[in-house]
């Protein structure tokens, strides 16, 4: 069982196959009102007999249950989707659906409307029941008019009822580019139906026919000499002769007069030159589909929730950053999976959920509540935004730490470059480790904090600068380590390579020294530290 709470703009990250997309599909499955097709592949464990998804909303909504000639307004704040395998054919029928599914809203239970302090009941309805109680058979509430008992089961709370203030949930899977094209149930096809309805609702046949005749004649005159019609007239005459119906008004039509938008498509037009949406490039086409849905959905009533699977697909990094900025400004809630460091912000750490191979997500509440130097871990994380550490300490490239399976935190660029190169010279493999340069020993704890909070295994490399581990400059980076995963250089990595701390162009000299260093010149301290890192990687 997994529980995930979502912020307004929330990223789901983690390795492939850890369940990120499944979370989006689960939300979409539970919140949509239509029929949901379930197969064996929807069960993670082949032996499991039941599947249940519950989605909670920040704000309540009304489910209007039919009650004779009227309805009862039931206050709800969550929905449930459940499925279980059918043990026998329904009613003895063959070829019945192998799964029984239910999708319903869940009432808020209360003894008096006075219990609601944070809910604006007037904005929903002033006619909700005075109370809703749970019974053995389902639920019970007094009717609005007579006060008699109104009893109902969860089946009566179907999402196909009229729902007031219910969140509109839109799911963008990886094939979302098609939403801006015509096709079965795509967004553009729905818009086209609406436009055709509006057009047909307002047209007058006489005006349309007159305008169409003028337009058609202008177009057809460019390809056919009206004085010598060698195609349409002979074609009509032959057809009329065979089928005995009047065909002198036969034309090669350019559009459906009653549904003029039927063959519509998005294009960028320059004069008579049209670039179809599909030819604009995958990235632009996907953006067109997203913004189209955003604009249309914002015109509808109620809260909006977007579910987007990997919004970075086919987008240049600069466009990714711009789209992420749009996400952050959006009035809608956006929940998305991503493998791109352009779509997360360290400052908004609460808006990131990291999933592991065990399908657990971090940061976990227990870890956030741990004491660390007199403060909760969560309080240390809050300081990132409070003290603008996401601008003064962390670089955007540091976002890769969230995508690491294991993280090696080093003091500077010399170690970041040198450790894997020297390990390679020693025939040691560190390819599965993400190496992060803290750009200064005092900054190492900030990266340790992120790893600790998000359950990322990390190993720390520290220069002691000739001091003890418990010296003021060394105490925090040496004490914030994980499971004794620490390697130290008594003085510094540079001096271990034979480069003076005061040498001119120190970094470039260090990198040259590393490239030129023979195996027999690698010191025992470097070998020992690399070996300890390699052993940690194997654990």
Describe this structure in words.
This protein has 539 residues and is an alpha/beta fold. Helix content is 31%, strand content 21%. It is built from 16 helices and 21 strands. It has a six-stranded mixed sheet, sandwiched between helices. The chain has a four-stranded antiparallel sheet with strand order 4-3-2-8. Helix 11 packs parallel to helix 15. The model has no long low-confidence stretch (mean pLDDT 85).
What attributes does this structure have?
16 helices, 21 strands, alpha/beta, 539 residues
In terms of topology, how is this protein built?
Blueprint lengths: L8 E6 L5 H12 L18 E18 L2 E16 L13 E9 L13 H4 L8 E2 L4 E4 L6 E4 L9 E3 L3 E5 L14 H16 L2 H16 L11 H12 L23 E4 L2 E4 L5 H17 L5 E6 L7 H13 L3 E5 L14 E4 L5 E2 L2 H4 L2 E2 L2 E2 H10 L2 H4 L14 E4 L2 H13 L8 E4 L6 H10 L4 E6 L8 H8 L6 E4 L3 H4 L9 H11 L7 H15 L1
Parallel strand pairs: 1-13, 1-14, 9-12, 12-13, 18-19, 18-20, 20-21
Antiparallel strand pairs: 2-3, 2-8, 3-4, 5-6, 6-7, 10-11, 14-15, 16-17
In short, what is this structure?
By secondary structure, the protein is of the alpha/beta class.
| First-to-last CA distance | 27 Å
**Overall form:** extended
Major β-sheet annotation: 6 strands, mixed
Strand order across the biggest sheet? Answer: 9-12-13-1-14-15
Mean pLDDT: 85
Structural class: alpha/beta
Report the sheet-strand fraction.
Answer: 15-25%
Number of strands: 21
Q: Helical element count? A: 16
Radius of gyration: 33 Å
* Helix percent band: 25-40%
The low-pLDDT segments are none
């Amino acid at each position: 069982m997994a529980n995930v709470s979502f912020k307004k703009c929330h990223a789901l990250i983690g390795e492939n196959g850890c369940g990120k997309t499944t979370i989006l599909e689960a939300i979409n499955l539970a919140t949509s009102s239509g029929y949901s097709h379930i197969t064996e592949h929807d069960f993670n464990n082949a032996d499991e007999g039941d599947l249940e998804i519950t989605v909670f909303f920040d704000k309540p909504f009304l489910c209007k249950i039919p009650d004779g000639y009227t309805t009862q307004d039931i206050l709800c704040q969550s929905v449930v989707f459940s499925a279980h395998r059918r043990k026998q054919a329904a009613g003895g029928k063959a070829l019945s659906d192998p799964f029984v599914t239910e999708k319903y809203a869940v009432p808020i239970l209360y003894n008096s409307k006075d219990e609601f302090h944070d809910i604006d009941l007037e904005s929903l309805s002033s006619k909700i029941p005075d109370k809703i109680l749970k019974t053995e058979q389902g639920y019970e509430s007094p009717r609005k008019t007579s006060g008699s008992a109104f009893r109902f089961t969860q089946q009566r709370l179907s999402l196909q009822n009229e729902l007031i203030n219910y969140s509109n949930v839109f799911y963008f899977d990886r094939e979302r580019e098609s939403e801006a094209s015509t096709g079965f149930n795509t967004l553009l096809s729905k818009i086209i139906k609406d436009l055709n309805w509006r057009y047909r609702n307002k047209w007058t046949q006489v005006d349309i026919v007159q305008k169409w005749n003028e337009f058609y004649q202008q177009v057809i005159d460019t390809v056919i000499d009206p004085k010598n019609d060698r195609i349409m007239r002979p074609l009509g005459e032959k057809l009329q002769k065979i089928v005995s119906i009047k065909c002198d008004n036969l034309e090669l039509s350019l559009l459906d007069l009653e549904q003029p938008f039927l063959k519509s498509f998005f294009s960028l037009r320059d004069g008579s030159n049209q670039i179809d949406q599909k030819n604009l490039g995958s990235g632009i086409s996907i953006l067109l589909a997203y913004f189209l849905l955003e604009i249309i959905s914002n015109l509808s009533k109620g809260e909006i929730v977007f579910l987007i699977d990997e919004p970075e697909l086919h987008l240049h990094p600069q466009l990714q950053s711009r789209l992420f900025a749009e996400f952050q400004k959006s009035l809608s809630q956006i929940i998305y999976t991503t493998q791109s460091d352009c779509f997360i912000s360290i400052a908004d750490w609460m808006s990131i959920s990291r999933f592991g191979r065990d399908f657990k997500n971090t940061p976990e509440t227990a870890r956030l509540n741990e004491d660390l130097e007199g403060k909760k871990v969560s309080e240390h994380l809050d300081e990132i935004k409070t003290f603008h550490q996401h601008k003064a300490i962390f670089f955007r490239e540091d976002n890769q730490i969230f995508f690491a399976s294991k993280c090696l935190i080093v003091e500077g660029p010399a170690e970041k470059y040198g450790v894997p190169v020297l390990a390679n010279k020693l025939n040691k493999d560190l390819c599965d480790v993400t190496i992060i340069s803290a750009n200064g020993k005092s900054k190492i704890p900030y990266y340790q904090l992120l790893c600790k909070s998000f359950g990322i295994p990390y190993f720390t490399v520290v220069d002691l600068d000739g001091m003890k581990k418990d010296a003021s400059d060394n105490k925090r980076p040496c004490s914030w380590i994980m499971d004794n995963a620490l390697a130290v250089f008594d003085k510094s990595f540079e001096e271990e390579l034979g480069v003076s701390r005061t040498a001119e162009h120190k970094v470039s000299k260090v990198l040259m020294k590393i490239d030129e260093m023979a195996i027999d010149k690698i010191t025992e301290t470097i070998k020992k530290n690399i070996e300890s890192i390699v052993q940690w990687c194997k654990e």
